[in-house]
Design brief:
Protein name: Carboxypeptidase regulatory-like domain-containing protein
InterPro entries: Carb-bd-like_fold
Helix content: 10-25%
CATH architecture of one domain: Sandwich
Order of helices and strands: HEEEEEEE
Largest sheet: 4 strands, antiparallel
CATH topology of one domain: Immunoglobulin-like
Strand content: 35-45%
Structural class: alpha+beta
Distance between the termini: 107 Å
CATH superfamily of one domain: Carboxypeptidase-like, regulatory domain
CATH class of one domain: Mainly Beta
Shape: elongated
Length: about 130
C-alpha cells in the first residue's frame, strides 16, 4: 500500500492561454472607453453661442484668440454656433458681408453657452410667408 505522499491526483488541465475572441473584445472595449472619455473631455472644454436674428442673415463669432466661425440664421430666425473653445468673443450680425450690429465681450465657459440676440424688423425674426 502506498502512502498518501505518493498518491497521484489527476486534475483536469486548465486552459491557460487567452482566446482570440477574448483578446479582441478586450481591445475593442479599451478603444471605445478611450474614445468616450475624449468626447466627454471635448464637450466639457467647448461651448456654443446661439440666439435670435433676422432670418437669412449671417452671424460671425470671433474670439480674442483668433477663432472665427460663421452661421446662417434659419427660416425661424434662430442660429447656433457650436464647438467653440472657451474664451471671449465678439459676435456680429452681418448683412451683405458687412457687420451691421455687434456684441462684445461674450464669455464662454467650459460646457456652457451664451445667448446673443439681435433686433429683428417689427420684432419678427422668422421669414414671412410672402417672401
Amino acid at each position: 500500500m502506498k502512502s498518501s505522499r505518493h498518491l497521484e491526483i489527476n486534475h483536469p488541465k486548465r486552459r491557460v492561454s487567452f482566446s482570440a475572441w477574448g483578446l479582441a473584445i478586450a481591445i475593442v472595449l479599451g478603444v471605445y472607453g478611450a474614445v468616450g472619455s475624449t468626447t466627454v473631455h471635448a464637450q466639457a472644454t467647448s461651448g456654443k453661442i446661439f440666439g435670435w436674428a433676422p432670418a437669412g442673415e449671417t452671424i460671425t463669432a470671433r474670439s480674442t484668440s483668433g477663432v472665427n466661425r460663421h452661421s446662417k440664421v434659419n427660416a425661424a430666425g434662430r442660429y447656433t454656433i457650436g464647438s467653440l473653445p472657451m474664451g471671449v468673443y465678439t459676435v456680429a450680425l452681418e448683412k451683405d458681408g458687412n457687420a451691421v450690429d455687434t456684441r462684445s465681450k461674450i464669455k464662454l465657459a467650459a460646457g456652457g453657452g451664451a445667448e446673443v440676440d439681435f433686433a429683428c424688423p417689427h420684432d419678427q425674426c422668422a421669414e414671412s410667408a410672402n417672401n
